[in-house]
Amino acid sequence: MTSNVAPVPLEKATRLLNHGPTVLVSARHAGEDNVMAAAWACALDYTPPKLTVVLDKMTRTRPLVEGSGIFAIQVPTAAQMQLTFDVGHRSLHDDADKLANCGVKLFGIDGHDLPFVSGCSAWLACKLIPEKHNQQIYDLFIGEIVGAWADTRAFENGHWKFETADPAWRSLHYVAGGQFYATGESLVAPSK
Amino acid sequence: MTSNVAPVPLEKATRLLNHGPTVLVSARHAGEDNVMAAAWACALDYTPPKLTVVLDKMTRTRPLVEGSGIFAIQVPTAAQMQLTFDVGHRSLHDDADKLANCGVKLFGIDGHDLPFVSGCSAWLACKLIPEKHNQQIYDLFIGEIVGAWADTRAFENGHWKFETADPAWRSLHYVAGGQFYATGESLVAPSK
């Protein structure tokens, strides 16, 4: 863990996802690590914080989540656009060196046996809330967020700092065909 | 419906949500219309297209969705930031003229008995897929997208046009405390 990675209070954890970024999902089971991209991840509750993520049956990450009961969700940066696209379009099924070939470097956080992706702006450690019907019928997984961290260069004191941070820290919002939008300008609604 | 509102093929419907915008949820039941904001909405499947949205038990829109079994999800624009904030922070419970006081104008689309919000960039007509357990335990609602439309000034031929459209058309990504980020610059990952 680098010196810029700081814990985020769990009551603020959903703020890391509230702007709707594309995320990286990672998991570890039986000696295997994998990382995939997911545009379909979303906050679900504040207390305790929860999120949803869609994991297709074709993915290699899904059985790691089902096997271990835990997973990490992380928010990649504009600087990681190619990495994000590549982990979403290559499979461990076809490329045993997928992570290395995609430029993924992993790191650990004490107390969580999960492969966290270096260079992201935020990380969420999640415990799977087993919901067989949702998982089988909709590929929909629910996780309770049990740990949250952010790089203080991008998120600090409960707030994203995109207005002042280097644009390389902005989040990614995937559309299709290799195209993303970066998070843009800050707009503030005056209370009436 | 204005002349700029064009149907979007259902197989492209999830593209209207893929970048993770904050949305407006609207519903009609027993002569009552309401509109609320939701940052927690997400695509769920391509075929048939589906989405999830979190509707708190405190909202007045939720019983309209439960009562009618249908709802609309629409993508508000940067120009609608104040409207989006206001419909998310006022309730019909307290203000019978909420919609007028928030500046909401509604319009109809043939074949769908739903109150669509004028001025948005995209609209999705949804049929509730009843999942009592998800609704009761998680406030999580699943809808099948049965109709999709976009304003051609913002989305055309299956693609958002934020790069060339007026910035007032950009989507909103809510954070907290009245702060949003607009959708930002386009980034394209070269295929390797």
Automatic annotation (TrEMBL), chains A, B:
InterPro entries recorded: Flavin_Rdtase-like_dom (IPR002563), Flavoredoxin (IPR052174), Split_barrel_FMN-bd (IPR012349)
Signal peptide: none
Family recorded in the similarity comment: Belongs to the flavoredoxin family.
Protein name: Flavin reductase (DIM6/NTAB) family NADH-FMN oxidoreductase RutF
Keyword Flavoprotein: yes
The keyword Nucleotide-binding is assigned to this record: no
Flavin reductase like domain location: 15-157
Keywords assigned by UniProt, alphabetized: Flavoprotein
Domain of life per record: Bacteria
Required cofactor(s): FMN
Pfam family, one: Flavin_Reduct
